[in-house]
Amino acid sequence: MNFSQLNQQTLEWGCYLGEDNVWPGSGLLLEIAALDYAASQSGVHRLYAEVLSFNLSVLKMHRLFGYLPMEDKPGGTRGNIEYVVNTFHYPFRQLAREPQCSITQASKTNRRGGPIYTI
Questions:
Q1: CATH code of the domain covering residue 54
Q2: Coil, strand, or helix at residue 111?
Q3: What's the gap between Cα 2 and its chain centre?
Q4: Counted domains in the chain
Q5: pTM for the complete prediction?
Q6: Would you state the torsion angle of the CA atoms of residues 20, 49, 14, 64, taken in this order, to the nearest 10 degrees?
């Protein structure tokens, strides 16, 4: 995993796990670690990432995590596959918005005596 400071408010991150024998879930763990690290950096409001267009699982994961697409960059050919470089940014300012839901503790307890939470 690699991070670069693009400017005072923007970090870029990237990683390469390989294409064969990749442990299931490792991309997800790296995605969470990247967001956590970037969010902990003072003054960083944006995380930038580039993904080769044939890497469909990472493209899907970035969209799932709320990365916003930017303009694609020219790519090239890898083997017999032509690709573009898809670019994304994750705006940390979106975390300051009002929550979409809230969690409250009810006065009731469950069968094991623990609190019941309402979302």
A1: 3.40.630.30
A2: coil
A3: 14
A4: 1
A5: 0.70
A6: -50
